[in-house]
Amino acid sequence: MARITLSNLAHSYLPHPKGPEDFALKQMDHVWEDGGAYALLGSSGCGKTTLLNIISGLLRPSQGRVLFGDRDVTDAPTAERNIAQVFQFPVVYDTMSVRDNLAFPLRNRRMDAAYIRARVEAIGRMIGMEAVLDRKARGLTADAKQKISLGRGMVREDVNAILFDEPLTVIDPHMKWELRTQLKTLHRELSHTMIYVTHDQTEALTFADKVVVMYDGRVVQMGTPQELFETPAHTFVGYFIGSPGMNLLDARIEGNVAHVEGCAVPLGAGYGPVGGRAQIGIRPEFARLTSAEGLPVRLRRVEDVGRHKIVRAEFFGREINIIAEEGAGIGPDMTRVAFRPDKINVYSDDWRVAPAGRLGEAA
Ligand SMILES: Nc1ncnc2c1ncn2[C@@H]1O[C@H](COP(=O)(O)OP(=O)(O)OP(=O)(O)O)[C@@H](O)[C@H]1O
Q1: 258-268: pLDDT as tens digits
Q2: Which of 223, 235, 218 is nearest to 349 (CA)?
Q3: Which atom of ligand 1 is nearest to the CA of 197?
Q4: What is the distance, to the nearest Å, from the Cα of residue 144 to the centroid of all Cα atoms in its chain?
Q5: Where is the ABC transporter domain (predicted)?
Q6: How far does the centroid of ligand 1 lie from the alpha carbon of residue 109, in Å?
Q7: In terms of domains, do 220 and 310 share one?
Q8: Of all protein residues, whose CA lies closest to atom 31 belonging to ligand 1?
Q9: Cis before 173 (ω within 30)
Q10: How far, in Å, from the CA of 217 to the mean position of ligand 1?
Q11: Is residue 363 part of a domain?
């Protein structure tokens, strides 16, 4: 197992890139700590697969170095990197039994037969296929075949890292939850470095200890699910994570007050001058409808989604979402929305601005 360092890395698929827009991965430095469970989260086309393929050696970066521990592997082929990779669609040998498919990476490395038998049975149990180990893979559903691919990715205990590229796309929703939980358990048992690529925030937040969010070829934040929720470093993180995402409003910041369309919104901290496009960001969970204080809004609709309600309101042509308790009464006089000051984040040109000091603290 190894710590993986990406140093001064960038990648363009073009032979002669002219500017940043020609790079699928913009210049980055990033470290994946040994034994971490990471999710790599971002929307389609942001560079997740490119990054994964550079780590596994399927792709050589056009700039920068890849280190496993202290070893520079930038030019090392995939086979030398000791990486297991699970792809979006199943890769199984149809003519082999489930057992032989699972045993394949171990037999390749000439492991002891008794060890292979025990290990394959343990993995078979983990993916819920112990009863069909001796069946041929041919004729199994796509779902079952993908479970074999997952099992094969995890069968070796001696790999540097396991990379999963949207591995649950073809798995049915119930099994998805179960496999994700099992992957997490397996991570705790084996402490492999695992990098799990997904564009699904639920998958990312339930699997990973640290979520790496990518946007437009860059890592915009690495953090725990709680950090991504409470202090999104970039407006994309605020918008992409959460359901609905963070509310963003253009503002002028003056110390501990944000001025939004002529209304003063108290902030939980003081700020120095905020340049560029200034915005405040507030999660719908920390906004509430009131009749007396806050920004004047027009209620558009209320969606009952089980444990809570999502209130869609409008403020000067922009949507503001509010999450209200299931039993909350929403009367016709509730035409204002107030924010929890300590939960408001401030952004300058999409990047979070650190407060100069919390209220009540020395700045
Ligand atoms: N082989 C390639 N040749 C040229 N451009 C490519 C190639 N592979 C990817 N790209 C481009 O690089 C950018 C990043 O693609 P990548 O597949 O890494 O994104 P992704 O985040 O994994 O997306 P998805 O979730 O859709 O797989 C995209 O603009 C894509 O069109």
Answers
A1: 999 999 999 99
A2: 235
A3: 22
A4: 25
A5: 4-241
A6: 33
A7: no
A8: 45
A9: no
A10: 10
A11: no
With cut-offs at 50, 70 and 90, classify the pLDDT of residue 358: low
pLDDT in tens, 73-111: 999 999 899 999 999 888 899 999 999 999 999 999 999
Mutate to test the pocket of ligand 1, among 9, 13, 164 (most ligand atoms within 8 A of CB): 13
pTM of the model: 0.89
Q: Whose CA is nearest to atom 16 of ligand 1?
A: 47
Distance 170 CA to ligand 1 centre (A): 20
Domain end residue (candidates: 239, 267, 293): 239
Cα distances (angstroms) measured from residue 85 to each of 8, 57, 154: 24, 11, 9
Residues with CB under 6 A from ligand 1: 13, 24, 42, 44-50, 199
Structural domain range at position 44: 4-239
Q: Which two tokens stand for residue 109?
A: 């490395």
| Cα(105)–Cα(153) distance, integer angstroms | 9
| One domain, residues 102 and 61 | yes
Distance CA 333, CA 341 (A): 23
Residue 261 neighbours by CB distance under 10 Å: 14
CB 176 within 8 A of CB 207: no
H or E segment and range at residue 231: none
The pLDDT score that the predictor gives to residue 357 is 64
Residues 290, 259 within the same domain = yes
**Residues comprising the chain, all counted:** 363
d(CA 48, ligand 1 centre) in Å: 8
Among 217, 239, 261, residue at a domain's last position: 239
Closest residue by Cα to atom 1, ligand 1, is: 13
Q: Taking the chain, what is the end-to-end CA distance rounded to the nearest angstrom? A: 44
Say if 149 falls within a structural domain.
yes
CA of 24 to the centre of ligand 1 (A): 7
Task: For residues 232 and 254, state if they share a domain.
Answer: no
ipTM value greater than 0.95: yes
